[in-house]
Structure formats: structure tokens, C-alpha cells
What does this fold into?
Amino acid sequence: MAGERRLPPETDFRPGYPFDLRRADHRARAERGPVGDLELTAGRIVARLTGQRVYLQDDGSSDGMVDVRIEYANREPAYLEVTTDIEHGYAAMWSGLMKSGQIPQLVTMPSLHRQWSVTLSGAIQRRRLDAELEGLLANMEASGLTYQQVAAVENLKATANASVKRLLDLGVVKLSSAPAQSGQVGALLYPDGITAPAVASWKPFLDWISETLASPKLADVRNKLMRTRAAERHVFLGITFSSPSAVYFALTVDEKGLPATAPILPPEITHLWLWNVAGGDRCVGWFPDRGWLDVARHWATE
It folds into this structure.
């Protein structure tokens, strides 16, 4: 069923840890992605909550193979697909920044006299920005425009400076600078984030879930799950900075509440997991027999 792969020896089972049956090149490719190896994270979370044998089985060798299989001791296996809600441009921008191995990415620029903080949107034209950024910031320094307090996009649009206008065209959304420390001149590149008040209503959160899970972009996820013919068909959805603020902030550690009503799921999906990829914060789940739960409060294993 669903392109199952071989099982490891029973002696290898460690409660709370998934079996990873994927090829080494598949794992390496996942690690290089914009959110890292989300399948491995999902497997670990599912294994800790269930205490069951969890297998990361999809190595790309078959179009119909589901990402994860959960082997229960007393009933038929469940299947789980892992996916991420991330805008394509934002994913590319994030991947570009992560090539340095850290966020923010420090770019040394010898012609500058200050250290700049530059925030990038998902619409960034990265190649052109790399080619032009040092010259544009040098022109701003020469004109005395140093933004010693953070200037957001609205403030930047209000200036007539040609270099600032060009940075806006290239996808920059915030700028600031400070005297360079220890001779480190250049720019710290940050991904654009989101801000919002605390969760006041769960309706936008629930509405987004129902719309996203039923959307055409997840049609392949739904089809793969349905083809398993399993009674339990899970989706593990990673939430990022490009997700709506109502969803992102519902999955931060500062938010303790849970919705009072069940989500509307398409018929192909029976169980739902939502994890804040960007903050590494909160994972919540919805199961038909348990309702909503804050996953970290219900671990079955270490």
C-alpha cells in the first residue's frame, strides 16, 4: 500500500524517534531547502506524541509514495503527508540568506563606513541587489542619509533619494545603520517578518485552514492520502513568515489558547498538525477523537 518500503529490525526502535528510510541524497536535499528537513521534524513530533513506530518512507522513487507511515500496535497503519505554506518568492529569498548558514547574513562591503541592517521581502531581486547594494548604500552615506532609526517601507517611499527608490524597486522593505563595530562595515541582511496583535478571534485561523487544505495547490497531497485507503489520513503543515499573521501568531509560544470548534477538513484528510516552522515554536493538532491539542503538552515519549 502507498509504496511501502522495507522495515528496519525491531531492535532499532527507539520510542519517540522515527525510522528514516530515505536515501542520503534525499535527506541532504531536504536539509538544503528553505525550511530545512521538515519531514524529519514532523516524524520526530509524530513519534513523540504517538509513541508508535513512525517511518519516513518517501525517497522520491515513486510518485504515489506518502511521506510518512505510522504503524500502530493494535490497528491499521496511518499515513501522513508533510507540506509547507510558503510563498515561492519568500522561499527563494530565505534560501539565499541561509546559504551563509545563519540569519542575518553578513555581507562585508569595504567601501562603506557604517554597518547597515537591510530587510528583504519575498519580492527581492537578489542577483541585482547583490550587484548594486554596496554602491547604493555608499551613495546614501555620502549624502548623509544613514537612517539611524529603523525606516520601514512607508518612510522609505517618502524620500526622494534615488538610491532609496532603487532599493525599494529591488525589494528592500526596511533600512537602518549604526557606526561599524571593530571595523565590520557592510550589511546585515534580514528576511521580512510579520507583526500583528494577539489572537482576538480564531475565525481567521479556521477559515484559512479550510481554504488552504481544500485549495488546488494541495490537490496532490489529498490524492496521495486518499489512495492509501487508510482510515487515518494526516497532514502536517509547516507555517512560515509568509503565512497570514492570524495563523503565524496562533502558533507562537506566547499563545496558549486553542479554537473551540473543529476545523472544516476536506474528506481526504482526517487529522491535522500545524507547526510554526519560522519560529520553531508551537505545534497544535486536531484529531477527531481528541479535538484540538497543544502537542507539546501531550508527549507520550521523550
User: Anything to note?
Assistant: Residues 10-87+196-297 form one domain.
